[in-house]
Amino acid sequence: MASSNGETYMLPRTIQESQRLDAQHEYMRHMSYGHLVHPSIPLHQLHAVADVATGTGRWLRQLAEDAVLPRPVSDQNPTFIGFDISNQQFPPQKELPPHLALETHDMVKPFPTEHHEKFDLVNVRLVSYAIKASDLDQVVRNVLQLLRPGGYLQWQEADASDSWAHPETPAASSCVDYVVAEKIDRGLLPSIAGPLVKTILSVPVTVPDGQQNIVSWSKNLMRLIHLETVSTFNHPSPAVEMGKKAATMSVATALLKARLHRKSTEAQDSLEPDPRVGKLKEEVEAMKATLEIIQRGEEHSTWDFDITWIVARKAIVQDTSKGWMTVRRPSP
C-alpha cells in the first residue's frame, strides 16, 4: 500500500524533515566512527561517486569536500552525483560545488544509460522506509548497474525492529509495533538487512570460457568485503551515547505521525456501519496517546539501535591469460 499521496516513502518532505535528516547524518557519521566511507574502500581510487536516495545531499557534499579524494579533472563533468525520487529537499544549485550534481530519479527504475558503469563508489543509506519488498531485487540490480567493474557498494540500514528500549515500557513497545505494522501495510520489509545482503550476493555475472572473475573467483556479480552491525549500545563515541535517545525518538515520532495520519484519514473516510471503524478509532486514539507521551518527554527508557553496514565489490571479468594482482589491488 502506498501512502496517502501515492508514495511508499513514509516520511514528509518539509524544511523540518530536511533539518532532521541533516542532524541524522551527523549522528550516523559519529556511529560510523567518523567515516563517510568505510576504511576497507580505498579513497584514492574514488574518482566518481554516486549517492542513491541522497535526500538533502549532505553525505555527498561532505565527501566532495574531502581533500583526500582525487580532484575533478573538469568542472564540466561532475564526479559526485546524487539521485533522489524527489528534488524537494535538494539545496539550491548555487550552494553546490561545480563538480557535484543532484538529479531526480526513482531507484525502482533503471538509471539512464549514461550513468551505467560510471562510478567507483555507490552509497545507499536508510532506504528501508522507501523500498517495497517486491521491488528490492530490481532496486539492487539498478544500483549495481551504476558501478564500474571493481567498484564498491556501501549500504547502511536500520529498522524500527533494530531498536529497543530498557526498560521496555508500553509506550516503547507500542511505538515500534506501530511503525513495523505501518511498514507491512505499505508493502515494505519489516526488517531489510537480511534480505538485502542475500539479494546483493545473489546477482549473477556472466563469465565466458577463457575468462575469470578476479574479484571473487565466482559467477557472483558482487563480493562481500565487509559486513558489520554497529550498535549505539556501548559505542565508544560520547556523541553517540549522548544523542541516541534523541536520534531514536526523532525518527520514531516522524514515522508514528505517518501511521497516525493514514489511519485517521482511513477512519474518517470509512462509513459508520463498517465494522472496522470502531477498531480504527481505537487504534488512532491509542497512537495519539503514545505520541503524546513521547512528545512530552515522558518516555523515560534508554533507547539503543543497530545499524547494518554492508560493503561489497563488483566483479572484474578478464582473460585468464592476463595478470590479475595489480588489477585487483592497484597500488596507491
In brief, what are we looking at here?
By secondary structure, the chain is α/β, with parallel strands linked by helices. Helix content is 35%, strand content 20%.
Distance between the termini: 49 Å
Count every beta strand, where a strand is a DSSP E run of 2 or more residues.
Answer: 10
List the uncertain runs: 1-6
Report the sheet with the most strands, covering strand number, pairing sense and barrel closure: 8 strands, mixed
Mean of residue pLDDT values: 90
Q: What is the element string, with H for helices and E for strands?
A: HEHEEEHEEHHEEHHEEH
Anisotropy-based shape: globular
Helix/strand/pairing category: alpha/beta
| Helix count, DSSP H or I runs of 4 or more residues | 8
Beta-strand residue percentage: 15-25%
Q: What integer value in Å does the Rg equal?
A: 22 Å
Secondary structure: helix percent: 25-40%
